[in-house]
Amino acid sequence: MNNFEKWKEAITVELAEKINKSIEGFDEEFERIPINEMDLKAWRKTDNLDEVSHLFSIDCMYCPVDQTEEGCPASDYCYEDFYEWAIGDSSWNEQRAEEIEAYNNSVNNHKQEIDRLMSIAEQGDAQVQYELGNNFLELGVLYYKKHDTDEALAEFQHAHIWFAKAAEQGNAQAQALLGNFYSQRHINLSIEKNDDTAIFWYTKAAEQGLILDSSQRSLLIEDILGRANNGDIEAQYQLGKLYLFGSLEEQNYTVQKSYQIEENDYDYAVGWLEKAAEQGHTGAQCTLGLCYYCGYRFTKENEKLAYRWFEEAAKQGYSIAQYFIGSFFKNGVYVELDNKQAFEWYEKAAEQGYADAQYKLGEFYSTMCADIGIPKDDDKATYWWKKAAEQGQTEAIYYLEEDSD
């Protein structure tokens, strides 16, 4: 008999009689309950719902459902739901039946997906190994919510195995979830908590540009903070990126829409980036330029600061900063519009492989070079667009497709 059936059996006349006996010595207000007729019919007929609710505050004393250290496995069926059922709310049975059916469907769907993915994962496909691990994890969570801890533990162990396989092959999502097994006690039922191991995997994931959730990010920030306070320039730069982007990817220079940065985090990012930038860290200089150019509270003064930091990094050969300086000249931001200067900075960045600069250089060769004494050259335009397209630059891909039509 499952917990739901045990609970249903509990709310019978037999249980009502037990409750009846238990309240004889209680406060006088309980005397208003129709003790002589305390069965399901009486509960359903009563007009005073407050009287009925007193029953539900003590029903756990006699409920036959087995208790666990985590609490009552039948808690989902008590109180409000029990209350509605006892007074004859016909929609309750339908709603509960729908929930049970949805739960069973979810369990079956995960099992079918596990069967489908297993043979592919065993061949070494990292993405499929991650998906397989995720299905085991979600199945375990379903069991855990129903307090089937033995079943949940088995699924979590399977999830850990497959996340580890995918993580070792560099799958960022698997790396982050593997880290969770070592940092979050409510998941790692079979694994000793180990923040160092969690930090190791969170770092691996963040370096690939995966945006960490708040708990993952907090643990990583806590680990880096001590080194940053002791003057470690790279740690200061990492903190700036974590606060700004939620990740550690070296070339993540747009605040991604899926990461909603808080204004306080933006201020922290600027503070740490300034510390590293002032000591000559080119990545920090470029990212700080982005903060001033695209961040909160944009002003003309910040425009000037953005140009300053982009220029500092660009002069040291930092390709992304070179691209931004090119854009300042191309659009006449802070400096006078100067297509020749724009072309030269884009060319420097493009030759280092920066895709957006390669696209812009192709654009110059296709339409704009006449102004600056360089002949229009469709072959060179196509060459640079192909270079950019190989890296997934969407505008370059579009132009190449247009040319081929």
Task: Characterize the structure shown.
The structure is a single chain. Residues 11-15, 18-65, 76-89 and 254-259 have low confidence and may be disordered. The protein has helices at 3-10, 13-22, 40-45, 49-56, 80-86, 90-121, 126-145, 149-168, 172-183, 195-207, 214-229, 233-245, 263-278, 282-294, 300-315, 319-331, 339-351, 355-368, 378-389, 394-404. It has four domains: 3-88, no CATH class; 111-208, Tetratricopeptide repeat domain (Serine Threonine Protein Phosphatase 5, Tetratricopeptide repeat), CATH 1.25.40; 209-316, no CATH class; 318-405, Alpha Horseshoe (Serine Threonine Protein Phosphatase 5, Tetratricopeptide repeat), CATH 1.25.40.10. It has 20 helices and no strands. The chain has 405 residues and is mainly α. Helix 9 runs antiparallel to helix 10 and helix 15 (300-315) crosses helix 16 (319-331). It starts with a helix and ends with a helix. The longest helix is centred in the first third of the chain and has 32 residues, at 90-121.
